[in-house]
Structures are given as structure tokens and as C-alpha cells.
Write a structure and sequence with these properties.
Shape: elongated
Strand content: 5-15%
Distance between the termini: 16 Å
Strand order of the largest sheet: 1-2
Number of helices: 5
Length: 98
């Protein structure tokens, strides 16, 4: 279930849902950024975060960005985030069942 892959992070007294995505999905974001001809700084400016957060996210540390920030990145990069998230949940379920 998707809720099992959520973590929560407190920032300025507000809780943000943070997805724990696989390195594979983080890599898909990196590949999409390269395909768009963007560097990490330009993507960070487009979505409103720090370049270092993009770097850590692409390195597989997906909990460095909030769910909303990841959705913004997907929109800028032309990725179907909901489909990616659903496929990730299904892969995790299959691996738990085996």
C-alpha cells in the first residue's frame, strides 16, 4: 500500500509527506532532466528548491524532497509521476510477496 512507503518530515511546524522512492525512479528523473537539456540548478530554480536537494534526490536519497516538490519536478520534466508511483508500489508489493 502506498501509505507504507511514506515518511514524514517536519519543516517549520508543517508536516510534509515524503516518498521513499527507489534509486531507479530517481534515475529516471535524472535521465529526463538530461533529455530536456537542463542542469540541476535550472531544474531547482524551476521548481523552487536548492540544487543540492536535486543532487541528493538523483543520487537516490528521495526523502530529501517533499512529495509536492517531486510532483513539480515531474511536471517540469514531462514525467507521469502518478504512473511511476503506482508502478513502484506494485514492484514493492511483488517483492514483499515473494
Amino acid at each position: 500500500m502506498i501509505t507504507s512507503i511514506l515518511k514524514f518530515r517536519k519543516k517549520k511546524s508543517i508536516l510534509f509527506a515524503v516518498l521513499d522512492l527507489s534509486e531507479e525512479i530517481c534515475g529516471q528523473f535524472k535521465a529526463a532532466r538530461h533529455a530536456k537539456g537542463m542542469n540541476q540548478s535550472s531544474l531547482a530554480r524551476a521548481v523552487g528548491c536548492q540544487q543540492s536537494a536535486i543532487s541528493m534526490f538523483e543520487a537516490g536519497m528521495s526523502t530529501k524532497l517533499s512529495d509536492e516538490m517531486v510532483k513539480k519536478m515531474a511536471e517540469v520534466l514531462g514525467l507521469d509521476f502518478e504512473a511511476m508511483r503506482k508502478a513502484e508500489a506494485e514492484r514493492r508489493k511483488k517483492s514483499e510477496d515473494s
